[in-house]
Design brief:
Immunoglobulin-like, 3 domains, four-stranded antiparallel sheet, elongated
């Protein structure tokens, strides 16, 4: 039998043990994991994980939580619930003041529980912790740092805002015909920068292409990147005519050219080395990981 319904039955039978008072003021178990754990007039708060009274107006709410407001104020279709305002009101009629009005969700929660979040681990699958509240990330959400951050997979953190990765428009992409190799589940390339452009007849051995241009690409992945560049499979660079080439061949084995970071090796910063003519001043290229996005980049040097 569900927790809150079981508690109500025990209350009716007079077998009252150590219980918590819900926002409705009745001595019943407050915590829940699903709507079925709550009474018919309640729902299980998706983040605070406590049963909360539904309502259409403040008159439907108990004195402990008198404000009738949308569960999610950013959604027009969100159900309305009774929200609290102070710890004192949450504990109205209780012998022990062991409830707290959650600052994140404005519902009465057992004292000592989070009632909100501090890290993404506190949230349900697919949600992130944003300013103490678990939310599903959306384009335009606030984020920090770069790469995936708290954004949806396929987006990246740009100037503290979740944004779609740039759409490819370069000739390298327009002439690329094998687009079945692309997707939204593989590693996502989100940035490229020109690191240097210098004469290097050792790396660029061969007449007419003595200039070595280094372009550093950054990508994130939902599976760990390999620790060694020679184990890196599925990364390609694409010529202007649309022909793909293995990118592993233009990654130097020396330190600093393949850097993997993150707890689960989810980010890679990779230096690609291109050989161009001595008088070259610009380079158009495209890169992609199998199953990932196509990223266009024009290097000016």
């Amino acid at each position: 039998m569900q927790l809150r319904k079981m508690s109500l039955m025990l209350t009716v039978l007079g077998a009252v043990g150590m219980m918590l008072t819900g926002c409705g003021g009745d001595e019943q178990t407050l915590t829940c994991s699903a709507d079925t754990d709550c009474l018919e007039s309640e729902i299980c708060h998706p983040n605070a994980k406590v049963c909360v009274q539904t309502c259409t107006a403040g008159a439907d709410c108990p004195d402990t939580a008198k404000t009738c407001e949308a569960l999610d104020t950013s959604s027009a279709s969100s159900p309305k619930i009774c929200k609290c305002s102070t710890d004192a009101l949450c504990n109205t009629g209780r012998e022990t003041a062991d409830l707290t009005c959650s600052s994140a969700y404005k519902v009465c929660v057992p004292s000592g529980t989070a009632g909100g979040c501090t890290t993404n681990a506190d949230c349900a699958s697919g949600q992130t912790c944003q300013a103490g509240v678990c939310k599903a990330p959306t384009t335009g959400s606030t984020c920090s740092g770069e790469g995936k951050s708290t954004c949806n997979y396929g987006e990246y953190c740009s100037s503290s805002t979740c944004a779609a990765v740039p759409a490819p428009t370069c000739d390298n992409y327009q002439n690329f015909t094998d687009r079945t190799k692309l997707g939204t589940t593989g590693p996502i390339t989100f940035k490229a920068v020109t690191t240097s452009a210098t004469t290097d007849t050792t790396w660029c051995a061969g007449a007419g292409t003595p200039k070595r241009v280094k372009v550093t690409i950054s990508a994130y992945s939902n599976t760990p990147f390999p620790q060694d560049k020679d184990q890196l499979n599925g990364l390609f660079w694409v010529q202007v005519n649309g022909s793909p080439k293995s990118a592993t061949d233009i990654i130097s084995a020396s330190a600093g050219n393949y850097t993997v970071t993150g707890t689960n090796r989810e980010r890679a910063d990779i230096v690609l080395n291109f050989c161009v003519a001595a008088d070259s001043q610009t380079l158009s290229t495209g890169v992609y990981f199998t199953g990932g996005n196509f990223f266009c980049y024009r290097a000016n040097y």
